[in-house]
TrEMBL record:
Record key words, sorted: Coiled coil
Any coiled-coil regions, as ranges: 10-70
Organism: Nostoc paludosum FACHB-159
Protein name in UniProt: Acetyltransferase
Amino acid sequence: MDETSELTTNDVTTQDIAEVIAELEQYRERLVQETTETAKRAKLMRVSVMAKLEPELAKIDAALEELRNQQATLSGSN
């Protein structure tokens, strides 16, 4: 087993989760921004590009929600 699979909830702090949330939010923003800029250069319609990007954004949003729930759970148990 590698180190990441050995981590338990007790090993993760609210600070760790906050850092991951911040990084994931930055990634989401960068993904939207860079995709939009590329679409403009390629003269693609923003609506069609965002429609194709939406499934990935939904995954990111779901991960963010799960992380925030974990963070709230850890904060409540401390």
